[in-house]
Design a protein that fits this description.
This protein is an alpha/beta fold and 205 residues long. The protein has a single domain, classed as Rossmann fold, CATH 3.40.50. The protein is built from eight helices and seven strands, in the order αβαβαβαβαβααβαβ. A seven-stranded mixed β-sheet has the order 3-2-1-4-5-7-6, sandwiched between helices. Strand 1, helix 2 and strand 2 form a beta-alpha-beta unit. The longest helix has 11 residues. The protein is globular. The termini are far apart.
Length: 205
């Protein structure tokens, strides 16, 4: 993408989870930075869906295969096993039916890669404790009455959901808001306290 801004660090972590030459669908792909990287650097058959038409137009203007669509309604239109990976980055908390979206992701692909802001981070807990109001950070940056984040969750919540629905966590990372890895890889409890976002690679059991 000529003249594009540098790819987010967390997207680079996600890209590292994808095998070269894979079939990839990026859900909520924005202007397509990750798609372009996967096509150019990993020779993937990568495409995306994005709900914001302006972002879709930006992606298309750079020659990227992106179409307008909503994660809550679009995934059901794809056949079983159409992809090797379906990616949902920083979007899970904003969909209407996160559990169903995950189910659809792992119906149409072998692996799902999911990242989300961690509502269990110590800074958010402290803001709630001291101020008694919904916290604000770079990731949680809108007032409660206008935020798109309708299903906030924590890293521990997500592990519990994977256990309940029979998903195998093949890999996971805790990262800061910029997407840099934090050193809490071996402890979900510490990651839940100190990680500002979680990144997970899943498959069905």
């Amino acid at each position: 993408m000529s003249g594009a801004k540098k790819m987010r660090v967390d997207l680079a972590l996600i890209a590292a989870m994808v095998q070269p030459g894979s079939r990839v669908l990026d859900v909520g792909c924005a202007e397509g930075q990750l798609i372009e990287h996967l096509i150019r650097a990993k020779q993937c058959d990568a495409r995306g869906i994005e709900i914001d038409m302006q972002e879709v137009q930006r992606a298309i203007s750079h020659g990227l295969p992106v179409m307008q669509g909503d994660a809550d309604t679009e995934l059901v239109t794809y056949p079983d096993h159409a992809f090797d990976y379906v990616i949902l980055s920083r979007t899970l908390q904003a969909v209407e039916q996160p559990r169903e979206v995950l189910r659809q992701m792992l119906r149409i692909s072998t692996h799902a890669i999911v990242s989300f802001p961690n509502f269990g981070h110590w800074n958010l807990r402290l803001q709630l404790l001291l101020r008694g109001r919904m916290p604000m950070t770079a990731n949680w940056n809108r007032m409660w009455f206008e935020t798109p984040n309708i299903h906030p969750c924590t890293i521990r919540d997500f592990f519990d959901l994977c256990d309940a629905d029979g998903y195998v966590v093949e890999d996971w990372q805790a990262a800061d808001e910029e997407g840099r890895r934090t050193p809490w890889r071996r402890s979900a409890r510490l990651a839940n306290l100190f990680g500002e976002q979680g990144l997970f690679l899943l498959r069905k059991a």
